[in-house]
Amino acid sequence: MKAEGAGEEEEGPRPASDTKNEDELLYAIPSLDTRFRLKQVSAVGTSTGTTLWLSSQVLVCYLIETERKQRRRRGAAAAAAAVATATAAAGAANTRRPLAVDLGAGVGLTSLVLAALGFDVITTDIDPPYSSVLLPNIAANSPPPSRSGGATRCGGQIITLLVDWTVASDVDALLAEADARGGADLVVTADTLYSPSIVDSLLACLAQLKRRGTQRQQQLDVQQEEEDEEEQKQRRKLEVKAKAKAGRGNKGTAKDRRTMILVALERRDPSLIEMSLARARSSEHRLEPDRVPQRVLNKAVDDHLGSCHWSRDDWDDVEVWHM
């Protein structure tokens, strides 16, 4: 598998605006030692969700860079509490993976990258994208293959759901699936703010996922703190003081954890984007839009797509927002 399409891998991914007419993309991400084979349906008259979009490509870079930073922080914390016991090891084995929800996943690139980063992912879309590109691409790339042909070390599970966020029963099914898996830690969506008629439905879905996910995470954190306190008592009896001290430092996480929402967009229609952001801030949805600084996106794109292949002009309308 490594030799196939090697020339394309050397060039790296091209901007989606240059590949709309291609039926298949070989999409390499060197920083993850991973490549994906992505089917597209570019025939005139089909849904716009059946081809790759620039906002997804930029969002993927930001996700990889953010996860790398978080792993560096976790690594430093782990080094400070390196003394482990059999009880702690057993607990680590049962730790749930973080859960991501991808709304309007399209060809599935963002979902596949999240799985490669270690998330379990609920990936969603409507038809025709769901049946024509999302399902085939998830099936063809799960588990996410490395360039050497093996599975990634920490690949998560991908669950596919047909979800129209304007349909209440679909949203209820999505919320139930997320609740059953411990609540969403991360919700992502890319290039989904394209029509005024669906903005409020999308924002309502995002707000519900955030509220439910945050509540569920806090419940689990309280439960985990109680279990940690019991483990600490046992460790004290064994005089494993270093680990007990590190465990005490973890108190208070329950009130700090929140479900993160990331919205990637292209500012093709500035008035629509401004209206959408205003609606997100409204008392109805109570989201808190906060744009990722351009310098942060620039670095992420340069690091994970390569400035030699991408100029700023290729993606200068793309923005990523926390909500």
Automatic annotation (TrEMBL):
Domain of life: Eukaryota
GO molecular function annotations of the record: S-adenosylmethionine-dependent methyltransferase activity
Gene3D superfamilies (alphabetical): Vaccinia Virus protein VP39
Disordered: annotated segments: 1-23, 219-253
Biased composition (Acidic residues): 1-11
Entries under InterPro entries matching the protein: Methyltransf_16 (IPR019410), SAM-dependent_MTases_sf (IPR029063)
One CC-aspect GO term: nucleus
PANTHER family: EXPRESSED PROTEIN, HEPATOCELLULAR CARCINOMA-ASSOCIATED ANTIGEN
Protein name per Swiss-Prot or TrEMBL: Uncharacterized protein
